[in-house]
């Protein structure tokens, strides 16, 4: 098996670990907790087993596409997953991972504190109903799912897949695929993928709130984009694993805040 194929399967299995963690989520209870109009007809759901299988299809497709895009394009634009690449080359995995650990942990913890601060600042502008349902929603999510899906799956999707592609497009068009991408292209890709990450949380926020308001939209995009920007710079300067470690570290802070009912 070639190095690129081994890299594909290493990252795909990492991303799929998060996807499979969806099986730990009580989807029926989660759906039942989403507010609906009083006169709305009851929702007929598939069996729990079928519902969980169906929930895996879309993320599996997206992870496969993101891993393929990253394996194909990342090296061309100077982006890397150093530890995974070392593993794929059958070199020392831990030696490649070590320089990413401390920056990832520190950046993740700081980002987690910043996200909690955003929540505290935004709470007075959010409805009591949304706050209560958001807190209940957070308690629905198993901790292992936060670490695996947030840490591995979302970083493979947003950084390895989306951000890499957003760097490659202007580099290919503007520089004809020659030399290292301009810093402007990379920064634009970092911001773009971070905003996409933030906007991706709007549908669930809208369901929990019964609709979007300007304060809620600003909070959701800002709170989630903060970390997206940090993770993007880590991926650029340190490697994908630094962003993964940071994402896991963010959830350490968020879980602590949930337990403390911040």
Tags for this entry?
0% strand, mainly alpha, 262 residues, globular
Describe it for me?
There is one protein chain. The chain is mainly α and 262 residues long. It has one domain (3-259). Helix content is 77%, strand content 0%. The chain is built from eleven helices and no strands. The protein has helices at 3-20, 27-33, 48-73, 82-88, 93-122, 128-140, 143-174, 183-199, 202-209, 214-237, 240-259. Helix 1 (3-20) crosses helix 4 and helix 3 runs parallel beside helix 7 (143-174). The chain starts with a helix and ends with a helix. The model has no long low-confidence stretch (mean pLDDT 90).
Count of discrete alpha- or pi-helical segments spanning 4 or more residues: 11
Radius of gyration over C-alpha positions, nearest whole angstrom: 19 Å
Global mean pLDDT: 90
Secondary-structure-based class equals: mainly alpha
Between the first and last Cα atoms, what is the distance in angstroms? Answer: 50 Å
Shape descriptor: globular
Approximately what portion of the residues adopt beta-strand conformation?
A: under 5%
Number of strands: 0
Order of helices and strands: HHHHHHHHHHH
Helix content: over 70%
Integer tally of domains? 1
Q: Stretches where pLDDT falls below 50 for ≥5 residues? A: none
Main sheet attributes: strand count, strand direction, barrel closure: none
């Amino acid at each position: 098996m070639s190095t690129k194929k081994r890299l594909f399967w290493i990252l795909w299995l990492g991303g799929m670990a998060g996807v499979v963690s969806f099986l730990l989520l009580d989807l029926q209870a989660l759906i039942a907790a989403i507010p609906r109009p009083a006169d709305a007809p009851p929702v007929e759901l598939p069996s729990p087993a079928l519902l969980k299988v169906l929930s895996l299809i879309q993320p599996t497709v997206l992870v496969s596409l993101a891993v393929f895009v990253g394996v194909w394009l990342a090296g061309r634009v100077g982006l890397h997953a150093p530890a995974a690449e070392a593993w794929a080359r059958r070199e020392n995995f831990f030696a490649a991972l070590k320089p990413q650990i401390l920056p990832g942990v520190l950046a993740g913890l700081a980002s987690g504190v910043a996200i909690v601060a955003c929540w505290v600042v935004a709470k007075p502008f959010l409805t009591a109903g949304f706050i209560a349902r958001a807190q209940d929603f957070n308690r629905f999510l198993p901790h292992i799912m936060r670490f695996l899906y947030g840490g591995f799956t979302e970083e493979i999707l947003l950084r390895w897949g989306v951000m890499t592609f957003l760097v490659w497009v202007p580099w290919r068009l503007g520089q004809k695929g020659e030399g290292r991408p301009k810093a402007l292209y990379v920064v634009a890709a970092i911001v773009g993928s971070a905003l996409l990450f933030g906007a991706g949380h709007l549908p669930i926020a809208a369901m929990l709130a019964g609709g979007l308001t300007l304060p809620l939209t600003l909070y959701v995009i800002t709170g989630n984009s903060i970390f997206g920007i940090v993770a993007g710079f880590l991926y650029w300067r340190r490697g994908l694993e630094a962003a993964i470690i940071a994402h896991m570290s963010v959830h350490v802070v968020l879980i602590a805040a949930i337990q403390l009912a911040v």
